[in-house]
Amino acid sequence: MNDYLLLLLGFIFLFIGGHLLIFSSVQIARRFRISDMVIGITVVAFGTSAPELFVSLKAVFAGSADISISNVIGSNIANIALVLGLVAIVYPLRVKKQSVWIDWGVMMIASLLLYFFSWNNDRLDHWEGVVFLVLLGSYMSWLLYDTKVSQKKSNKSNLIPEVKQKPLFWVLVIFVVSVAGLYFGSAWLVTSARSIALSFGISERVVGITVIAFGTSVPELVTSLLAAIRKNTDISIGNIIGSNIFNIFAILGITSVVQPLNVNMSFLSWDYPWMIGIAIVLLIWMIPLKNGVINRWKGGVLVGLYIYYIYKLFV
Questions:
Q1: What is the CB neighbour count within 10 angstroms for residue 253?
Q2: 100 pLDDT exceeds 60?
Q3: What phi, psi does 293 have (nearest 5°)?
Q4: Helix 65-77 and helix 44-61: axis angle, to 10°?
């Protein structure tokens, strides 16, 4: 099959599979009387990161560690510089919660820790993946506590809209279909991306950072745009920061536990500094951290930085 068609099918299957996984998981969680708070923070959060996870796992088993890491790094850069930048151009984002600095701080800790682990021995080992997963568990525990406190203050109980219950049989069928979609989508995406990269003499690292990372960032783009249009700007910003935290702690954590990842020196010298630098720009753009505004010109700067970064990758 044509590699470009396979690449497109991979993106489509990942996108649909991720949405079906969230829907079916929420349905199953409700049947076990799990609260909306827990569903929103765990099930939905995992569902939105599922495409990146499947792609990274498939890549590492295919012997393409560069794709596993570049998928995460590229997604984190694209989430802030491209996705948040485009959203701010469409609708300026107002920072309403001062607590956003805590989430940003966790994202920065994750980024710096990834840089240190990678630089320390030029690879991510099993134990470093375990550290990522422990930190992820701690962060999610804090999220649950913080959300519970916030709900008590606002007298709200739901994090996500009510979903009408479907027959259990069909829910299980949808769940199986979603997992199959993610599996085949990730396999086709990695296979076609590697083939295209080789045909053009482009490294797997560059393809992972550009094409694959953009494709797996589409769910964040759609979610953030819809949230901004509905004036739920905290969701737009929180969705991006939360996704970046999950990308490092969950995806690279699970992947490196399964199999240690050798780190290309180009990540250390170029991509990691860009990921950290873009995060610092985001913090500056959000100041003050309550009632701050990421307006259209700031969004334009972010998109401009992303275009320059991609340009330098190829040049």
A1: 24
A2: yes
A3: -130, 130
A4: 150
d(CA 213, CA 74): 5
Distance between CA atoms of 171 and 178, rounded to whole angstroms? Answer: 10
Determine the Cα–Cα distance for residues 32 and 165; give it in Å rounded to an integer: 12
Dihedral sign from CA coordinates of 31, 34, 37, 42: negative
Per-domain boundaries in the chain: 3-314
The residue-averaged pLDDT of 94-112 equals 85
Distant-in-sequence contacts of 266-274, Cβ < 8 A, 24+ apart: 266/205, 267/69, 267/70, 267/73, 267/118, 267/205, 268/115, 268/118, 268/119, 271/70, 271/73, 271/74, 271/77, 271/205, 271/209, 272/73, 272/111, 272/114, 272/115, 272/118, 274/77, 274/309
pLDDT bin (cut points 50, 70, 90) of residue 2 is: confident
Per residue in 132-154, pLDDT tens? 999 999 998 888 787 777 767 76
The tokens for 274 are 């860009």
- Does domain 3-314 match CATH 1.20.1420.30? yes
- Beta bridge mates, 123: 262
Q: Bigger pLDDT: 152 or 274?
A: 274
CA distances from 188 to 193, 195, 198 (A): 8, 11, 15
